[in-house]
Structure formats: structure tokens, C-alpha cells
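quick q for whoever's on today - can somebody do inverse folding on this one?? i tried earlier but teh output was garbage lol. C-alpha cells:
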């Protein structure tokens, strides 16, 4: 489903990603952990070309982009449609209701008629447990509810891959669980997902594979029980000892 070869990203002289290789099967949930500044967010943003990689080849499903060659806008747009991102700070439109936020993508990006988009949005809000909040505005919702709208909005684009960028780190602790539960359900349904998170329990319980990143490279990867219970690399051991 996803294949990444020798992915590099530079910001000016600062090389943030220094050659990432990864292959992911359809339906897998991968959790990316690592210290702050190690390049996790940049890696995720490169998968959606919110950041344009400096070098490397990324394939998602049937589309491949080679960033060592010039990439056309058309290619970027087509590639982007395959994944959808959930952000730390939800980024909902404040002047739109929950339902309108979820409808926006299908109507604007996919050109779906409003009645169909409304039905679809209602079903997605129900899926994330917010059927009764459809007509509320973001400011009327808790952070956890806003983030669940954010997930419904991403799902409305019918992505092949969901990308989560620290989706619970802006939330009060008591609201984290409801968002993780929605993500857990998605993984159980077979959604392919890449999740950057500090929620180690989620990583342990849900990830098919955990990647430990440091200094712009994947230092170690493996099944959650191996990474958390028997990390091989000293850097992984040190990181895990600091957070537990
Ligand atoms: P993480 O998600 O692991 O905390 P990031 O990917 O956010 O790491 O950042 C990795 C490094 O890239 C940091 O040193 C950060 O300052 C730098 N960086 C990220 N985005 C930009 C940008 N748009 N311009 C310049 N430097 C950036």
C-alpha cells in the first residue's frame, strides 16, 4: 500500500529527514514515536506532500512520485487525494457547524452534491459518536469532540491512508480516551494508518508496527511488544526509559 524509498527533507541547510525507507501493507497501523525534533511530523507531512521532500520516492497504492525529478501540480493533487491528515489542533472552520465541516471536503474537493454530502457527513458523525452534535459550532464542542469531527472530516475524503499528527496532544487528559477509541475502531476496521503520538498505551495496544525515529532516521522498528519490552538499540532504550 505504501512504499517509501530514501526519503530526504531539508529546510535550507537543515536536513531533517536523512533517508527513510518503509513499506506498509494495506490495513496496517503504524505508530511513529521518538524525541521532539526527530522529524516525525515532517515525515508525516511529506507523505501528504504538505512538505515537499527534497529527494526520495513515495508510492501510495497505485501512485508513485519521485521527488528527485520535477513534480507537477497535477501529480501532487492526485497523490494528495489518497491520504487525509488529522492535525494536533483540529483546524476546523470556526464559522461552520460540525456537519458543514465534514461536508466541506466532499463538496469542494470531490464535487459531490450537497444532499449526498450531507447524508455522508451525518453517517460519519454518527460513526465518531457525534450524531447529536451535527449542528453545533466548534466553539460549542469540547476539544475531544472537535478532534472527532476532525477525524470524520478526514474520513469524508475517503482516503486510502489516514495520517494522524499527535491527534491527542492538545487535549485535556480526560478527553484523550474518546479520540483514541475512535482511532482504535478505525484500525480494527482495517484502515491503513500512520500515527505520530506520545500515547504509548495506544501504540502498544493498536500498532501492528512501531517505528522509533531519532535524528531524521528510523533507528528501530518492530512489533510493539519487541520495541517496548526488548528494544535493541541504545537510543530506543534511553528514550523509553525517559518517558516511562
Ligand atoms: P518532531 O515531529 O519529531 O518533533 P519535526 O518534524 O516537527 O519533529 O521537526 C524536525 C526538525 O525540523 C526540527 O528541528 C524543526 O525545527 C525543523 N522544522 C520543521 N518544520 C520546519 C520548517 N517549516 N522550517 C524549518 N525547519 C523546520
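ok took a stab at it. sequence:
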Amino acid at each position: 500500500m505504501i512504499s517509501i524509498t530514501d526519503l530526504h527533507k531539508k529546510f535550507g541547510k537543515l536536513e531533517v529527514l536523512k533517508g527513510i525507507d518503509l513499506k506498509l501493507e494495506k490495513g496496517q497501523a503504524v505508530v511513529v514515536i521518538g524525541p521532539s525534533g526527530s522529524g516525525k511530523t515532517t515525515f508525516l507531512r511529506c507523505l501528504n506532500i504538505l512538505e515537499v521532500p527534497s529527494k526520495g520516492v513515495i508510492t501510495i497504492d497505485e501512485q508513485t512520485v519521485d521527488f528527485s525529478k520535477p513534480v507537477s501540480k497535477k501529480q501532487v493533487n492526485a497523490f494528495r487525494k489518497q491520504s487525509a491528515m488529522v492535525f494536533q489542533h483540529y483546524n476546523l472552520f470556526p464559522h461552520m457547524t460540525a456537519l458543514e465541516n465534514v461536508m466541506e471536503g466532499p463538496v469542494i474537493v470531490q464535487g459531490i452534491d450537497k444532499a449526498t454530502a450531507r447524508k455522508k457527513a451525518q453517517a460519519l458523525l454518527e460513526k465518531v459518536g457525534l450524531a447529536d452534535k451535527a449542528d453545533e459550532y466548534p466553539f460549542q464542542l469540547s476539544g475531544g469532540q472537535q478532534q472527532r469531527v476532525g477525524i470524520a472530516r478526514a474520513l469524508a475524503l475517503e482516503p486510502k491512508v489516514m495520517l494522524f499528527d499527535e491527534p491527542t496532544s492538545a487535549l485535556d487528559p480526560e478527553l484523550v480516551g474518546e479520540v483514541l477509541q475512535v482511532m482504535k475502531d478505525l484500525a480494527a476496521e482495517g484502515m491503513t494508518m500512520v500515527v505520530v503520538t506520545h500515547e504509548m498505551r495506544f501504540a502498544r495496544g493498536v500498532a501492528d508496527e512501531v517505528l522509533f525515529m531519532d535524528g531524521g532516521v528510523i533507528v528501530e522498528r518492530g512489533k510493539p511488544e519487541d520495541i517496548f519490552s526488548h528494544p535493541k538499540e541504545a537510543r530506543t532504550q534511553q528514550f523509553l526509559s525517559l518517558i516511562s
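fwiw The two ends are 33 Å apart (CA to CA). also The mean pLDDT is 95. so keep that in mind when u check it
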